Amino acid sequence: MQTNQTSVIYFIIKGISDDPNLHLPIFLLVLLIYLITISGNVTILIACRDPHLHTPMYFFLGNLSIVDAGCSTVSLHKILTNFITGDKRVFFFACMAQMYMFGSLQGLELAVLTAMSYDRYIAICKPLQYHLIMYSRTCGILAAVCWILGFLQVLPPAWMVYSFSCYFSIEINHFFCDIIPVIRISCEDTTFIEMLFFIEGLFPIILTPFLLTFVSYIFIIHAILRIRTSSGRLKAFYTCSSHLTVVILLYTTLFGQYLTPNLSSTLESKKMFALFNTAAVPLLNPVIYSLKNNDVKRALNRQWVRSIIVQFKGRVLFSHHKVM
Asked: Which helix H or strand E contains 89, and what residues bound it?
């Protein structure tokens, strides 16, 4: 049955599973993952406030933490609210906004990771020029470009989806409003937008950052192999290992989620890739960076000690005023 867009007030979000027995376990798992993700990324942001971490690498890591927290919030909140309220509806404009925000944040995350790979390239391949190239203004410009590109490049396909005039169904076979499942329920000819989405995803959004990151690591690995001592090679590789791990995880899931051969592949498989991308990757990012990074651990310890000292001084002053 065709439904005109003017009468589509809301969509129904199908969710991860139709089995009622799985709703509570899924809710508890997603809630736990979401809370750990938010707390982990907030912890990274707190650590990046430490004066010892006011470097380009941690500046971009702070941006990445903001993006990861945003991605998880935009995509996972509907699973939580659906279970709590029992209402699977999402209003049309809210659905379009969620689709646009998620796509923008995904593109932004890839751009930030590309900027981080450039920072690692300069640090390892041109160490003597590092502070001349990667100073605060350069980092600010790179971050601004990442944010602008992230929110601009998704506009064309998002606007085309917003302009759809009719739908076969109002049920979206996903756990949030993503562009592919919304395209699937349109009764219009979606050939052009599918091609546009694939080309945009293949080149400016995913493939271009991937190639830039890949090329950066070719130069990085070549520079590391030229280091004469094994300890020097190990130290140089250690500085890149966290970033490289995150890059591999993210691109693997994105290729499975969006760049499979055609849009006629099963939504169930794409849904699983999307769940890993929106839940596991943002969760693993702070874990990878904090567990493998002694600088972050030391910064958190300093922040913790500083907060204890501030609380102690506050209590002493309060007691002093109380006695007086």
From this structure: strand 89-91
For the cut 50, the answer to whether the pLDDT of residue 5 exceeds it is no
The distance in angstroms from the start CA to the end CA of the chain is 78
Q: How confident is the model at residue 311 (pLDDT cuts 50, 70, 90)?
A: low
What is the tens place of the pLDDT at every residue in 123-142? 999 988 998 999 889 999 99
Cα 295 to Cα 258: distance, rounded to the nearest angstrom: 35
Sort strands 10-13 and 171-172 into parallel, antiparallel or unpaired.
parallel
Task: Name the pLDDT band for 2 (thresholds 50, 70, 90).
Answer: very low
Check the CA dihedral 309-311-312-317 and report its sign: positive
Whether the CA torsion 213, 216, 217, 218 is positive or negative: it is positive
| Token pair in block for residue 59 | 């500046």
Q: Which of 283, 260, 259, 257 is nearest to 271 (CA)?
A: 257
